[in-house]
Specification:
The protein is mainly alpha-helical. It has 2 domains: about 55 residues; about 35 residues, no CATH class. Helix content is about 55%, strand content about 0%.
């Protein structure tokens, strides 16, 4: 294997805190996880497709659209009124 290099990334603090807890609970370090991910990407020449799997909220939105739950608006103003209704 070649010479190791440092990889740096900016991550919001709250995300890093939660991720660190999960990573540590699995017995790994952040470096281990990054190394595994980078190795996988280099080997497969692609980002793992599992990283792009839709979450439950997105899947529910897809299902709603398929069942005819798509809202229609007469104007852009009506769309924005609906988007900001809960503000």
């Amino acid at each position: 294997m070649g010479v190791s290099r440092m990889v740096q990334a900016r991550v919001p603090g709250e995300i890093q805190d939660v991720a660190n807890q999960v990573i540590q609970a699995s017995g790994l370090s952040v470096s281990d996880v990054v190394r595994v991910l980078m190795t996988r990407i280099a080997h497969d020449k692609a980002i793992p497709s599992a990283l792009f799997q839709p979450n439950a909220e997105t899947l529910a939105a897809f299902a709603e659209v398929e069942q005819g739950g798509l809202k229609k608006f007469d104007s852009v103003d009506a769309l924005f009124d609906d988007l900001h209704a809960d503000d």
